[in-house]
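User: Run a structure prediction on this.
Assistant: Running it now.
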Amino acid sequence: MKLENELKLILKKDIKEATNLQLYNAINELVKKKAKTLSRCEGDKKLYYISAEFLIGKQLGKNLINLGIYDDIAQLLENNGKSIADVEEMENEPSLGNGGLGRLAACFLDSIATLNLSGDGVGLNYHYGLFRQQFKDNKQYEIPDEWLKGKNMLRDTKVSFPVELAGKTYYSHMYDLDVIGYHGNKNTLHLFDLDTVDSSIITDSINFDKTDIAKNLTLFLYPDDSDDAGRKLRIYQQYFMVSNAAQLILKEEKEKGHDLKDLDKYVAIQINDTHPSMVIPELIRLLILEGIPMKTAANIVSNTCAYTNHTVMSEALEKWPMDYIRNLLPRIAMIIEEIDRRFTQYVWEHCNGDQGMVERVRVIQNNTVHMANLAIVGSHSINGVAKIHSEILKDDLFRDFYQLFPERFSNKTNGITPRRWMLYNNPQEKKFLDELIGKKYEVDFKKFEDLMKYVDDPATQDAFLKVKQERKEILAKYIEEKTGIVVDPASIFDSQAKRLHAYKRQLLNVMNIIYRYQRIKSDPNYRMQPHTYLFAAKAAGAYTFAKKVIKLINCVAKVVNNDPDVNGMIKVVFLPNYCVTMSEILVPGTDVSEQISTAGKEASGTGNMKFMMNGAITLGTLDGANVEIDALVGRDNDVIFGHTVEELNDMKYSYRAQSYIDGDERIANVLRSLVDCTWSSDPDDFTLILNEIKNKNDEFFVLADFDAYVKAQEKIEELYQDKHQWAKMCLVNIAKSGYFSSDRTIGEYAEDIWNAEPLKF
């Protein structure tokens, strides 16, 4: 009754009479009211997690769960003829991130609050995020994502800081979002913006005047940096983010009465990838203004900051022309130059004058700032995000730095929050687990392991299969609503949902589909297990190859899905506008989790963990966290294929893509179909893809792994025919997924890097 009365008081009308939008706004206000009563997570040391992305997803349902009132609100609405699902539909998903980096940051904030650690997120309040994806004539088009229209969870703090960009001072505006821990306290996500940002400068698609900083600074996440104006805008964005973060940190420390010379005793800063690296020189600059000498300030900052690397891809390791920094941020440039000078002197003295070593580790090389080097030099800790990734950092990417500072390097395998990716997105599986192993697994990740007692039980297997089938039917309905394509829930639902990039090898997936289709067409007696291939991904607007792969998948889908010869054996679906909300439907309904990146290229991944926790089987290479998944579940409970990192390293200089084309008729036929008008009336439509394979010698070894991938897909179909064995495999994956709770990851960060004490269970 109390909740009902509180809601009626906010609504000023009966619940039955309210629209879904009115109910959303009212429940949103109720959440904010209850959040005010929660205590802040407090500790001797406070973490600031700085990230360019926070892909937080819709907040209403998650907050209701963490407040412990989701079921009560759902029942209250049902009693009044309303649906919690319909109310949640009213919320716009915050467009504050793009992929794994942003989703990881969101999971981490949830775990930090749940573990009762004092820790806030800091980022930017993008008005349109990356973009909203639409398809027209099978091609991707980018349009602004107007998520800020209407009510949302943001709180206007009225807090402002001055930030100088290219000699002009801009005043920020800080918006806060409560991060509510599970049945616990709260932290905050701070998002900085400019009041002068003006969407009217957007011309068509997501194009805009990149030079008008006052109007464009926080319009979009990752604006196109293929020209000078775009690169300068990226620098402005990053500096604006870290300057506000640094000013906020010092403001809060002064208010607590702490001596700034002891900053590292009270504050930990986690640099999430290279984007926030400029917090190092900015914080040094501000400490100097407080009267602290440069050398002392630099030591304080390095003892405060820690850097997480998320990629081995050279194009993602940001490098900015030093001339840009000098012109746009002259004081920051001076400090970076001084950091570089002092560090090169240190390396020279400690490496017996090894000039080669000096040049390889410099922060400034060829008049270019290497942001990863800046992050490493200015931090006391550097970590990778999966065991194999961390070894690559030490053995290859940052080998010289590891030789200099081996004690700084560690591994912190990524994780996901089970509150979002089990309790919220899969209530059917939650109920199933509650009945078997109790309810403590949502905060004690080791409890998932209790499911192992039941994996061989036929009744448990049947119960799980029933849960999975229900989720597949929900997904099938969603697919039809979004695309018009009717899929068979009895078929294998095989999903590859992740950012579209060549190394993630969506191309390998679609090549297998083309091969299987060609086999159906050439052999009337050929039969295969009905298979629904699901894709979801966005391609960066300027990434032509990735956009061509999207078009190819859509073109293949159009042909295959409408060919009567296929007879239901294959369906291909590309779901538009991949986001958290879509993932919450896609992940629980998936049978097979595609994790097929080129070995050594994927840092970790978290999609593989979400699918695993929701009872999908990993089909993947030994890359990223797949290595750890495979070790945990055993080779009987996943399907691993392809060349290893070591094997690819051995063959990379002798590799010839043409030899695979000449030696495998299946590959030759698939590639030929790209230019023979099978998929498009324009024979040149997919020549770019063919050229990437032939003329650029198949950089990501798609052809080298093709045969193994085809066999792996055939093995999946064979395994799927034994329903009870398949169910056992799924149950083992769920039971072993607890290791990938972000609570475990954050506990390790807190103990090993931040020197902060998490809540003990």
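The radius of gyration is 26 Å.
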